[in-house]
Amino acid sequence: RTNFANYGKGASNYDKTSDLFGDGIFTADGDKWRQHRKIASYDFSARALRDFSGGVFNRDAAKLAHIVSGNAAAKQPMDFQDLLMKATMDSIFTIAVGVDLDTLSGSEEGSRFAAALDDASEFTLLRFVNAFWKVSRFLNVGAEAALRRRIEVVDEFMYKRIRARAEEISDGDIGKAHDTVSM
């Protein structure tokens, strides 16, 4: 909690990840990181996470169990790894952002966002092994062109949620802070 400078991410990491993660807690260093951490600490305290996340994980586990038992009863094949990934994404996103992606139930918008985020994360990771990623970004070709398109999907989805939340707050509906927002 006090040795922030010992755990810096550095300019190189920022350069590679900021297109996707912006200037947030995942990319920032120093005072900016300390500010983000302080803000996040209110929502992500052990008690707040325990109180809220238990219900979210139980809800999504019940959805997953229902889907698996339905497919098993109907003797339908299923991609269990995909179902686990969707359940995890739904749960974590609800806890972190307050929005239920509902990819387990087949939400088209949530699934589109989740796929774009997954791809964008992969393309961002490739920057750590591709010495020429900046050239590809400049020319807008290959994985960098694909990354730009995926980030547009991610940004569109997130800014829509931010605008909706800002409207709730301006309308005086502050009590929904940790209610899940369905799409």
Automatic annotation (TrEMBL):
Does the entry feature the keyword Isomerase, yes or no? no
Q: Which InterPro entries match?
A: Cyt_P450 (IPR001128), Cyt_P450_sf (IPR036396)
- Answer yes or no on keyword DNA-binding: no
Q: Which Gene3D superfamilies match?
A: Cytochrome P450
GO MF term set = heme binding; iron ion binding; monooxygenase activity; oxidoreductase activity, acting on paired donors, with incorporation or reduction of molecular oxygen
Q: Which domain of life is it from?
A: Eukaryota
What keywords are assigned to this protein?
Answer: Iron, Metal-binding, Oxidoreductase
Q: Which family does it belong to?
A: Belongs to the cytochrome P450 family.
The protein's name in its UniProt record:
Cytochrome P450
Instruction: Give the lineage.
Output: Eukaryota, Viridiplantae, Streptophyta, Embryophyta, Tracheophyta
